[in-house]
Amino acid sequence: MSIQLLRKAAFALCLLAVGLFAAENPFAGTWKLNAAKSKLAGSGIGPSGGVRVESDGTTYKASVDTTDEKGQPVKYDYEASLDGKPSKVTGSAAVDELSLKRVNDHTVNATGKKNGKVVYTDKRTVSQDGKTYTISRTGTDAAGKKYHATIAFDKQ
């Protein structure tokens, strides 16, 4: 193999690597709750708010600023790796621990716990066009009643 061919191959590989690292994580950004596309009954989530997600592809850092079913403000933060290990949630009355597990580039599974007990499981997806973030949640409310919610967000 010639030196020129090796140089060209190395250059092409470098371009590919830069492109992959520069690609934005589809979950990263500011998302606004779309109440019209959501089914929130029983979830404890009100019809307004949003979330800001920062991600490097292996860790998510999120700030949630929404309302509860009574319209009262709900604000909490978490930073979690995508390896399924539990992380602390600060400021939430509903959950104190969250585990995230990457399924693929556009899907993450999540488990929220309160005092060691699972209170919800999520399938979180971002559409292929990157404009919609949807959480399909199955959980149990504070009264012990089971619910299924769909929480839809639009990219801002």
Commentary on this structure:
- This protein has 156 residues and is mainly beta.
- It has one domain (24-155): Calycin beta-barrel core domain (Lipocalin, Beta Barrel).
- It contains 1 helix and 10 strands.
- A 10-stranded antiparallel barrel has the order 1-2-3-4-5-6-7-8-9-10.
- β3 and β4 form a beta hairpin.
- Mean pLDDT is 88; it is low at 8-22.
Quick overview of this protein structure:
The chain has 156 residues and is mainly beta.
State the total count of DSSP E strands. Answer: 10
Query: What is the domain tally?
Result: 1
Count of DSSP-assigned helices: 1
Strand neighbour order, sheet with most strands: 1-2-3-4-5-6-7-8-9-10
SSE pattern, N- to C-terminal = HEEEEEEEEEE
What shape does the CA trace take?
globular
Give the overall average pLDDT.
Answer: 88
Strand content: over 45%
CATH architecture, by name, is: Beta Barrel
Helix amount, in percent?
A: 10-25%
Top CATH class: Mainly Beta
Largest sheet: 10 strands, antiparallel, barrel
Looking at this protein, list some descriptive labels:
single chain, 156 residues, mainly beta, Lipocalin, globular
What topology does this entry show?
Elements (H helix, E strand, L loop, with lengths): L2 H20 L6 E5 L15 E7 L3 E9 L5 E9 L1 E8 L6 E8 L2 E8 L2 E10 L5 E9 L5 E10 L1
Antiparallel strand pairs: 1-2, 1-10, 2-3, 3-4, 4-5, 5-6, 6-7, 7-8, 8-9, 9-10
